[in-house]
Amino acid sequence: MPSGWSKADIEFLIKSRSVLVVDDNQFMRKIVRNLLMNIGVREVYEAADGIAGLDAIRMLGPDIVVLDWELPLLARAQGGATRRQRVSA
């Protein structure tokens, strides 16, 4: 636990985050969703491909994105560049 943080602080931080899981494998999305929910994340969204993931980022503005490295319809470099453009815009 970080110095000066209570267990309640960390639990609040986890519960207040929204996470988008982008993966073409439905089973992997389910595993990641379940893991996140088991540690207390309340808002978990899913997208099945790169295009849907970019749309979800624009619409939902998640705090964290868990992204499949070999994602169809979006090259690795393209996904990172698109995300950086959104953040700096």
Description:
The structure is a single chain. By secondary structure, the protein is of the alpha/beta class. It has a single domain (7-88), classed as 3-Layer(aba) Sandwich (Rossmann fold), CATH 3.40.50. The protein contains 4 helices and 3 strands; from the N terminus they run αβαβαβα. The protein has helices at 7-15, 26-38, 50-60, 76-88, and strands at 18-22, 43-47, 64-67. A 3-stranded parallel beta sheet has the order 2-1-3. α2 links the parallel β1 and β2 (43-47). α3 (50-60) packs parallel to α4 (76-88). The longest helix is centred in the middle third of the chain and has 13 residues, at 26-38. The protein is elongated, with a radius of gyration of 14 Å. The model has no long low-confidence stretch (mean pLDDT 84).
Q: H/E element string?
A: HEHEHEH
Helices, by number, come to 4
| Number of DSSP-assigned strands | 3
| Structural class determined from secondary elements | alpha/beta
- CATH fold field value: Rossmann fold
Number of domains: 1
Please tell me what the overall shape is: elongated
Our measurement of the CA-to-CA distance between the termini, rounded to an integer number of angstroms, reads: 34 Å
Instruction: Summarize the biggest pleated sheet.
Output: 3 strands, parallel
* Strand order within the widest beta sheet: 2-1-3
How large is the radius of gyration?
Answer: 14 Å
Q: Give the CATH class.
A: Alpha Beta
Helix content: 40-55%
User: How confident is the prediction overall: mean pLDDT?
Assistant: 84
Instruction: Give the CATH superfamily.
Output: Response regulator
Oligomer: single chain
CATH architecture heading: 3-Layer(aba) Sandwich
Low-confidence stretches: none
What is the strand content? 15-25%
